[in-house]
Amino acid sequence: MPSKSELWRYFDKLKDGKASCRICKKILKTCGNTSNLRCHINSVHKMVLEDEIRKIKTSSSSEEVEPSFKKQKIEGGDKVEVKITDSEITQIPSCSSSDNLYQTKQLTIDTSMKRIVSYGEGGSKHSQITNTICYMIAKDCQPFTMVENKGFKKLMKLTSPLYKMPTANTFKKQIEQKYNFVSVEVKKKLELLKAYCITSDIWTETMQTLSYLGFTIHYVDMEDHELKSIMLEVYELNERHTAEYIAEKLENLCTEWNLKKDYITTIVTDGGSNMVKAIERSIQNTQDLKELINKVKQIVTWFKHSVRASDELRTLTSYKLIQEVSTRWNSTYYMLKRFLNLRGSISNIINKCDYIGEILNLLRPLEAITKEISGDKYPTCGMIIPLINVLNMQISKIKPQYSISENLKKNILAECQKRFSNAAHNTTMAVCTLLDPRFNKLHFQDAQALAKAIIALKEEYKLISNIVNLDESDESSDSDHTSEFNLWQDHHKLLKEDWIKSKQKKSDADGKLPEISMYFQTPPTGRIGDNPLHIWKELASSHPNMAQLISKYFCNVGTSVPSERLFSKTGIIINQQRNRLKPKTLNQLLFLQCVEDKYWGLG
């Protein structure tokens, strides 16, 4: 007979299947079970229930619990002992109306034995834990010797006492096996693609003075409309970094990963980083600014090296000064920005802070652009032309009061004109911009470049839609350029003007035009923060042929930053604890770090 529920401690049983609450005297129907009573306690007297649970926990923790117990089974006169640890006993909250509020259930001996066996080498639990540790080593850049650390062993002993920890060498072999398996799966995935972009970069590892060449592939996964990237290969460079030698490595990449050269849309390399050089040259050409930045650097260095000065600064603010890093122009911006924020604490140079404020206003758009263009989760190639346009607008409308700022403004505009004036004539960039629904034709300032891009897009469209003639005249819209910083505020003004013009040109014949004509006659759609791949997921039904071009053009990235990030990870992986890591193992770890979790089979 089932035991009486502890809920009846709070109720008096009445006639006709009813019960009275001892706390609030409310009459409830029971209908032969305690469901209504339980709901009443949970909703009305929740504090009482929580207090009861607290008492149960307190009493259970104060009692001495036998860590294990033994059961005996007699077989042929022999006594067989089976030891079951307390970790094999599970406490399960009761949901049944006839059960107690909480009860302890004990696993059967047969079930316990199966669980013990699963933790042995080759068992399901053992394989699952080993695979997860391999995942941790690859994803978190941990050394293989981590598994031999005292603290990690203690943690595993507590959480999985039945698991026998393999050695570091065993995990190296496991990583190699995982790499071999996952690389085959990735090759199958890549064979289905019709277009991909490759970024590459060269990096020198300082501990062993070895040079590496890394290749990352970028592609559009049309199943979920996402831009994805995988580090395919990191080659050790044993010869001079000539064009022929690097081309040979690219050939090896295509051979090893079954990549078709016809499907490679672009190969993006560091090539001098135009944006960075434009900023650096602008600063170098503004002599007063160069001197001011050097003074700020000296002050920051003094604070970094003076314990007394640092202590005094800490008493005034919780923020620290930021030092410039020569290889990252953005660090100059962040150094000046933090310096300006702490001007009240650095009063002896307060007269220079007005200059810095104006300089920051000029550098802020550049900092925002470098962030926008460095993404690898969304298409960036189509953002370059719009970003150059809004950059010129933002810089042009700033009115400096000091000559140092005025000179910087002139130099920035001159460098941008020198380096980016022909960006719209790059067919790949231009077509990517046209295919981005957020921009369309909006940011083309050069009518000839726009016409060239539209012709290129139409040719692609013809191949897909089998249309022989597309006789349309699409003209770019001319636009007049006229708190909190918003890089895209000029874009929104252009967009508003374009919407007004589109309404004026709207005709009843729109529905009869080919989809490419409809696309160009429609104003840009979507917000700046939207992923254009997601917008095209909605547009695919009305523009099915154009949607087929998305995977070819949106796989192109605007910069080589993804490859540079790759070697930032390499610098983390190769550290004092892993300074003898072989190039082959490094390649395997970087590859496994980049692949999606679904390839790990962790569930």
Automatic annotation (TrEMBL):
<keyword id="KW-0238">DNA-binding</keyword>
<keyword id="KW-0539">Nucleus</keyword>
<dbReference type="GO" id="GO:0008270">
    <property type="term" value="F:zinc ion binding"/>
</dbReference>
<dbReference type="InterPro" id="IPR008906">
    <property type="entry name" value="HATC_C_dom"/>
</dbReference>
<dbReference type="GO" id="GO:0009791">
    <property type="term" value="P:post-embryonic development"/>
</dbReference>
<protein>
    <recommendedName>
        <fullName>BED-type domain-containing protein</fullName>
    </recommendedName>
</protein>
<feature type="domain" description="BED-type">
    <location>
        <begin position="2"/>
        <end position="52"/>
    </location>
</feature>
<dbReference type="GO" id="GO:0005634">
    <property type="term" value="C:nucleus"/>
</dbReference>
<dbReference type="GO" id="GO:0046983">
    <property type="term" value="F:protein dimerization activity"/>
</dbReference>
<keyword id="KW-0805">Transcription regulation</keyword>
<dbReference type="InterPro" id="IPR036236">
    <property type="entry name" value="Znf_C2H2_sf"/>
</dbReference>
<keyword id="KW-0479">Metal-binding</keyword>
<dbReference type="Pfam" id="PF02892">
    <property type="entry name" value="zf-BED"/>
</dbReference>
<dbReference type="InterPro" id="IPR003656">
    <property type="entry name" value="Znf_BED"/>
</dbReference>
<dbReference type="InterPro" id="IPR052035">
    <property type="entry name" value="ZnF_BED_domain_contain"/>
</dbReference>
<dbReference type="Pfam" id="PF05699">
    <property type="entry name" value="Dimer_Tnp_hAT"/>
</dbReference>
<keyword id="KW-0804">Transcription</keyword>
<keyword id="KW-0863">Zinc-finger</keyword>
<dbReference type="InterPro" id="IPR012337">
    <property type="entry name" value="RNaseH-like_sf"/>
</dbReference>
<keyword id="KW-0862">Zinc</keyword>
<dbReference type="GO" id="GO:0003677">
    <property type="term" value="F:DNA binding"/>
</dbReference>
